[in-house]
Amino acid sequence: MGDRTDLPKTAALAVSRGTITNLSSPKSPPLILASASPRRLALLEQIGIAPTAVDPADIDETALKNELPRDLAGRLARQKAEAVSARHQCAFLLSADTVVAVGRRALGKAETEEDAGKFLSLLSGRRHQVHTGVSLVTPAGKLVSRTVSTAVIFKPLDDAEIKAYIASNEWRGKAGGYAIQGLAAALVRKIQGSYSNVVGLPLFEVANMLKGNGFPLWTDIKR
Ligand SMILES: Cc1cn([C@H]2C[C@H](O)[C@@H](COP(=O)(O)OP(=O)(O)OP(=O)(O)O)O2)c(=O)[nH]c1=O
């Protein structure tokens, strides 16, 4: 947290207070964001949605034996939704989980310089997948989930590039040890699929899930 891959100051302040006003429309129903990720809050803000409250889930994110990375992202998003929805009634609730995968291997979040170095060496010059599971609970208690995958191709990285990126600290707490929304954009040769999905929330799909379940978007405001 606290690096320049985080979000605008207004939203960051809002998270620390725990409760923010819904800016999407005066008539919008309550929406809880079950995530501690400032990036997710900023992404929702980008499409005109400011959650009524931010209430992160605290769950064990360990993969099950033989669980594929894509399945892991879906399961964790669902578990986050289930854990937090028990505390909120009559509201929409959104949760997500982002997993970076090289083949069948999920890389997890980089917490140390050693993690970051290992992950970047693995990603160097290859194509990997970023899976984000998203779950939505409606005010009636219905749970809707989907998982979106984006392919990301890194340029081959030399030792100096890896060292310089580690010094930036932007990898801290990020799945796979990088943040595409920051300096790492200069290392990404190509992506196939949703960009926002890599940052932490596939906006097109999230908008469709919300709209399809009765949450009004900016496109629904009568002019
Ligand atoms: C690959 C990538 C990940 N990330 C971030 C998004 C997520 O915050 C994080 C993946 O961890 P998650 O477990 O998905 O999310 P989180 O722990 O930050 O928040 P919460 O569980 O409360 O929802 O990595 C980026 O910001 N940029 C990137 O390019």
Automatic annotation (TrEMBL):
The active site is at D97. Its EC number is 3.6.1.9. It catalyses: dTTP + H2O = dTMP + diphosphate + H(+); UTP + H2O = UMP + diphosphate + H(+); N(7)-methyl-GTP + H2O = N(7)-methyl-GMP + diphosphate + H(+). GO terms for biological process: nucleotide metabolic process. The record marks R39, T98, Q181 as: Important for substrate specificity. Its cofactor is a divalent metal cation. SUPFAM superfamilies: ITPase-like. GO terms for molecular function: nucleoside triphosphate diphosphatase activity. It is found in: Cytoplasm. It holds the Pfam family Maf. One of its GO terms (cellular component) is cytoplasm. Its main location: cytoplasm. It comes from the Bacteria. Keywords: Cytoplasm, Hydrolase, Nucleotide metabolism. Belongs to the Maf family. YhdE subfamily. Belongs to the Maf family. YceF subfamily. Nucleoside triphosphate pyrophosphatase that hydrolyzes dTTP and UTP. May have a dual role in cell division arrest and in preventing the incorporation of modified nucleotides into cellular nucleic acids. Nucleoside triphosphate pyrophosphatase that hydrolyzes 7-methyl-GTP (m(7)GTP). May have a dual role in cell division arrest and in preventing the incorporation of modified nucleotides into cellular nucleic acids. HAMAP family: Maf. This is dTTP/UTP pyrophosphatase. It comes from Sneathiella chungangensis. The gene is maf.
